[in-house]
Design a protein that fits this description.
86 residues; 2 helices; globular
Length: 86
């Protein structure tokens, strides 16, 4: 479970559209070489499990598994909101 501050950071990245509101086209798992997480911004420790996604924008993003889970949840809410505003 992510703490409040981390959840806010991830929500803000959807607000600013730094994270895409469309679901990733591909997701893979692997060992981290020490890259930062696209969601929370913290480094994914070397050799810890990371998830890589590629979206419609062809950009690879790397996540802590729990951050990607929360990001998917926020994305669902953002999509529903934007659909209501269209
Ligand atoms: Zn993270």
């Amino acid at each position: 479970m992510l703490d409040e501050a981390t959840r806010k950071t991830i929500e803000a990245k959807f607000e600013s559209r730094e994270l895409p509101a469309t679901a990733p086209e591909s997701v893979w798992g692997g060992r981290s070489p020490g890259r930062p997480c696209a969601a929370c911004g913290e480094v994914i420790k070397v050799n810890h499990f990371e998830l890589e996604t590629v979206g419609a924008d062809r950009i690879s993003r790397y996540y802590h598994p729990e951050c990607l889970t929360y990001a998917s949840e926020v994305r669902g809410r953002v999509q529903a909101q934007r659909a209501n505003c269209a």
